[in-house]
Amino acid sequence: MKFTTQLAKDDNSDLYHWYFSVPNEVAESFIEGNDRRVITKVNGVVKYHCAIYGDGLGGFRILLNRERVKKLKLVRGETISVVLEKDRTEYGVPMSEELREVLDQNPEADRLFHEMTKGTQRTLIYWSDNVKNSEIKIRRAIVMTEHIVAQGGKVDYKLLNEEMKQANQAAKRG
User: Fold this and answer.
1) Are the CB atoms for 55 and 61 separated by under 8 Å?
2) Structural domain tally of the chain?
3) Within this chain, do residues 106 and 74 fall inside the same structural domain, yes or no?
4) Which residues form the domain of 72?
5) How do residues 63-116 score in pLDDT, each as one tens digit?
């Protein structure tokens, strides 16, 4: 479904400042119970997985991170073209082959991962896969799976990042 809207900025938000409004009839056609996941394409250039959020005033919005705004060279109030499609992926974001393989090789990590909330799963997929280098994706996936097994299915992000730093240092030493 395609529509146009304006880029807006919430100066009161600590986390996400950039967003655009989604017409109610469009948003409601994509929301299925608690599932608000969509794949969004802005100006025919940037495509990403995200959710439709309520704006607290009876309307709906989709967030746009600073990196995407910069890539699109957008300014506040600019009219943008948006195409939405329902996100039917298993996790609400794509999972790399590297992460899938590491989970397949560690049944306990796979079980614990699939007991987590969808939001935690998406966060860990993003954390593991948000690099281009396949070797680093594998290293991140291994560190993450070992972490969730050692933590009994819980995630301590501060500790996880420290474990990743140690793994990177070990890889540099060779």
Assistant:
1) yes
2) 2
3) no
4) 2-86
5) 999 899 999 999 999 999 999 999 999 998 999 999 999 999 999 999 999 999
